[in-house]
Amino acid sequence: MKISNQKIYEQIADILIEKIESGELNTGDKLPSIQKLAEEYGVSNASIREALNALRMIGLVEIKHGFGTFIKSQHPQLFDYSSQTLTKKRVQEILELREVVEVSTAQFASMRRTYQDIQTMEEALCEMEKAIKAGESGEEADLKFHLAIAKASRNQLLYELLNNIADLIQQTMKGTRKIYIYSRQKTMKKLLDEHVQILDAIKAQDEIEATSTMTIHLAEIRQTLVDNFIVEK
């Protein structure tokens, strides 16, 4: 089967996901080498690596360097509830808090941001872009960006409120990204573009646009979590 067109690695990931979920590939099975998969699908080794990295991020495969890639699970592990620090109820509460607080921090940041604040936000988005290109999810850079906005709001209490639950926010960001990878509801590129739009509004000191872009961003996160039965409407 030959693959063509754009976003090749996503097409390959979709094919492998279907094979895993249908039982054609079972837990413990070893996949062919990257070179053999590239030859089978008529794509580059790099595209195969990207596809396998995407499957690794959602817990379907395990890559053992020097040994190969093995099927780890028949079902994706989107949110990690094993530590008990994160539950469905807690995810809902975090989302609600973000919807209340971060629309305001974006508005205040557009009014009060400094040149240094903008630099910090730009650095965070550069880190996010590099992570995405490297086949990583980039939630650390995502969190850094949102905390930079909170700091630029010049409201210490709002900043501390978000910073105090930063670990939980990052966990929910990671889980949401896994959903994007698994369900194809949104590409990592589109997610990055949303953040760029928020930054552009803050740079332009446009309160209305900063509020709007942050609201839309958080609303799309909510819809993704609702569609995948993580939170209620």
From TrEMBL:
Gene3D superfamilies: GntR ligand-binding domain-like, Winged helix-like DNA-binding domain superfamily/Winged helix DNA-binding domain. Keywords: DNA-binding, Transcription, Transcription regulation. GO terms for molecular function: DNA binding; DNA-binding transcription factor activity. PROSITE patterns: HTH_GNTR. The keyword Transmembrane does not apply. Residues 6-74 form the HTH gntR-type domain. Pfam families: FCD, GntR. The keyword Transcription regulation applies. This is FadR family transcriptional regulator. It comes from Staphylococcus felis.
